Amino acid sequence: MPDSSPSLDELMQSVYAEMKRLAAAQMYGERRDHTLQPTALVHEVYLRLAGQHCIDWRNRAQLLGLAAQMMRRILLDHAASHSAAKRWGGLIRVPMDDDHAMLRGPEVQILDLDRALRRLEEIDPQQARVVELRFFGGLTAEEAAESMGISVATIHREWATARLWLLRHVSEAQRR
Predict the structure, then answer these.
(1) Is the pLDDT of residue 11 over 60?
(2) CA gap 66, 147 in Å, rounded
(3) φ, ψ for residue 108 (rounded to 5)?
(4) Considering the entire predicted model, what is its pTM?
């Protein structure tokens, strides 16, 4: 029986425009001389995903979930390397406010967000994964639920709780 799973290339074609929008949203508020552009970020995500040979590509939600992890790592690597080169300059800032956590609201430095997200992951890995999918991947509650194999109601509860926890911890970090 032939395999009906779509290929990475097929899935990427279906989500490419959305991934560019997500990358642009993640990089909203960046300094003007930033060397990483949204298109380059999406292409870097694709290259890293293409190197994952053991993945059985099932659907769009799975691809966006993995892309969210890759995008987070790329942005963190870039922010950390630039920060190391220039102590406080040029940290990537990401907005964090509405259900999709994009384009409006208080800006959060991605390194502060990552530290808080790692702390949350120690306390509640499921909430941390929901944040990663919703914030970095831009998945809807329905897509995140499908990706994680849990109910949409659980996604909403976990997202609300995690978001409040992260906002509190990131705000504390920025006041220091």
Answers:
(1) yes
(2) 10
(3) -125, 135
(4) 0.59
